[in-house]
Amino acid sequence: MFKSSLRAFSTSKAARTLLERELYQGNSVVRFILNDKKVNTLSLAMINELFAELKAIDKIEKVRSVIIAHNGKSFSAGHELKELTTESGSDKHNEIFNTCGDMMNFIRNMKVPVIAEVNGTAAAAGLQLVASCDVVVAGKSSKFLVPGQKLGLFCSTPGIALVRAVPRKVAMDMLLTAQPIDSEAALRSGLVSRVVEDDQVKFEALNVAEQIGHFSRSVTALGKAFFYTQAELSTVDAYRYGSRVMVGNLKLKDCQEGISAFIGKRPADFEHTNDLVEEVKKN
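-> structure tokens emitted (283 positions)
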């Protein structure tokens, strides 16, 4: 089992209401906890708070991974509907969806992996957040749904992340019927990475983070960036691009340290930098 050290971030009272912060594993794992004391709606305030924290965390070299968790029975019920009324106006609506989309894209582009820790219901934009994370650990009783049809508001933007995580027929079934799927169905469809007992979700998410933390931060960042880029390419172009990335990867000091350690049957001592080895010039 992982060893952890915990220290809460120092935040304002207002910020703590929406988002709690914890540090684990020698301050290398940041665990954000959605905490609006209701159903963790992704209000514009919540989105802005989480987005700002993610941008700040991605710049901290010591951080190896991020976990997004939640208090209460709901991971997130999606957007705050009170902000989507006609009275809010189109400018506010555009700001909400654009900022939310920017945050989802940023999660994919972060240097460190982001792990969703789900122990409840993830709906609409809440499911969008889950689907945008790199790894998803879910409790057995968790539910996932895109129920916009019931409100007359099709879950168009949540569907963007959903269809990139599950087969199209599964995504359309969920979007058209507004019916939930359970954690096992989510696992089978690829929306979820691991399913554990409800009381083990936090520990499993931290276990995933610990496993990631054993490896080079720079190589992990390179691998994550390549994974999402190549997925948008044709197979031919992906292999061509992949060959260049592999050759570049071999030039990293951390890569050569890992190879040397494996050959020498010793633990690798990664520097977690993008420093390159000096090429040997052939006569």
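The first helix runs from residue 13 to 18.
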